[in-house]
Amino acid sequence: MKTVKSVYVNGKFSTPHGTASTTVISPLNGQAIAEITYADQVDTMHAIRAAADALPAYSKTTVEQRSAYLKAIHDEILKRIDDLVNATIVEYGAARERARWANVIAATTFLDGIKVLENYPFTIRVNESTVIKEPVGVAALFTPWNATAGAIALKVAAALAAGCTIVLKPSEFCPWQAEIIMECIDAAGLPAGVVNMVNGSGEVITEAIMASPEVTKISFTGSTIVGKILAKRAVDTMKRVTLELGGKSANIILADADLQTAVPMALQAAFMNNGQACIAGSRLFVPASKLEEVKQLLVTAAENFTVGDPREGDYKLGPLANKRQFERIQQYIQIGLDEGAELLVGGPGHPEGLSEGYYVRPTVFTGVSNDMRIAREEIFGPVLSVISYNAEQEAIEMANDSEYGLMAYISSGDPAHAKELAKELKTGRVLINTLKHDSMAPFGGYKSSGIGRENGGIGLEEFLEIKTLIS
Description:
CATH topology of the largest domain: Aldehyde Dehydrogenase, Chain A, domain 1
Protein name: aldehyde dehydrogenase (NAD(+))
Pfam families: Aldedh
GO molecular function: aldehyde dehydrogenase (NAD+) activity
CATH superfamily of the largest domain: Aldehyde Dehydrogenase, Chain A, domain 1
Family: Belongs to the aldehyde dehydrogenase family.
Largest sheet: 8 strands, mixed
Strand content: 15-25%
CATH architecture of the largest domain: 3-Layer(aba) Sandwich
Radius of gyration: 22 Å
Strand order of the largest sheet: 3-2-10-9-8-11-12-22
Helix content: 25-40%
Structural class: alpha/beta
Number of strands: 23
Distance between the termini: 64 Å
Shape: globular
């Protein structure tokens, strides 16, 4: 059985001071695949000290030097892409196509950092003053289990580009993927202490990070509940905070949309990453006049979203990440039934022939009202709620009637009109007739979906402090 390395401090992997350990279970079949001994508060304090010691020198590196480090990390990840794909499938349950796409994106994220640095003005003139932008300091980066390599890359690339040093706390639920990325960073030859990793219990490691005045920046991706706790704790030492949190994204199909395109795209938006995506379009708003046609198309399109072991075929969906996720989705499907929603596709239980592992039946509910729990709470699995509307403004109002505001989708035959409607949505991104990702454009949310933005120049600025010089 594989032993996962949990501590990388001051330029080397080391035996953790922590003694708590756990077994990593593959969602493909429920079998043990690895063991990890968790880092503890002592390991975390060592990581913070290493990052603080490395900060004075690294913060003074040139744009050219930092770009070279980013390029080296990119190159090392590409060398390990097959290892990463395998780990993402076995440890997380991603479909093979998704696993490869996500890990290639992780590599290219470091090249995006170089593009930002090429033209970014770290010194600007404002009226009679000179304004300089300098690294915020030691950055603690918390990354989620549903996008391990990509989330690490997004935060690490921005922090390194800004000149910060790093304490990385990846999710303890996908440690094998995090270990591979850390091995790539190690192979890239950065100075010791610039990037450090401690992997273990969130409660244990977070306590040391939040208490330390040497950590001046928190960047967290995860649940809204945990994000709010971190934000409150950050005030004690005035840490700067970026939070990328939950979502309950609305997908609005307008009356003039091409339903043959819009409906399959809506299912893809809802079921992406096995439904475990904060950006999932889990609320589908449909004109009442088109509802019956959309229902028929949903049933037909759902047949293409096959479920199975990614090692054995080109399935669109694999299992959920762990037993807790499986049980959570089963509970929500039952909630939908209890609330009186109409089960159109899927339902409770395992798909036929997949009794081992954490596979679920991709599920579509119709007859949903926007006040039902399945329409308001982030389910984080392949469950779509279909809600009908009579007028466009009603759809906009229901879309905005949510505590979240991370992503939205609009399908329309009139893109110019869709853009005008998009301006009324209280959300960080709106995708119009597409599921494209723009890695250089800001990403983040309104309301309980977070604070701040990631990606591109605006994402870089989350790791910078502003200083004004007047003479």
